[in-house]
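Appendix C. Worked example: MAP1B protein
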Amino acid sequence: ISKGPGNSKSSKSTAVPPGPPMYLDLVYIPNHSNRKNVDVEFFKRVRSSYYVVSGNDSAAEEPSRAVLDSLLEGKAQWDSNMQVTLIPTHDSEVMREWYQETHEKQQDLNIMVLASSSTVVMQDESFPACKIEL
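Step 2, the predicted output written as structure tokens:
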């Protein structure tokens, strides 16, 4: 059997390989916060002051409850209790339920979830927005 580039079988790999943590100011959680691409290892390694959570498709499970729970589990393993702000791009049922059910744990881990209460109007279009100062 030939093992050319198109024929090689790959073993299961994680989205973020093991290694030392990376500290960033702002991170967009990839792939509309889908659990296929983001797990606990992501949040253990990619440490940010701000995470943008996209996704507004309940049929595709975006944002994923598993991803939001992974943030809590990953953040609990950090060696510091730095402030983390979660910025949802849409108001979703998944986000609201997760927020209410895990609020105490969020407080313990110093995680704040921004509400989408600000709106920007440009020409004939308006959309939710938030201001981040780094």
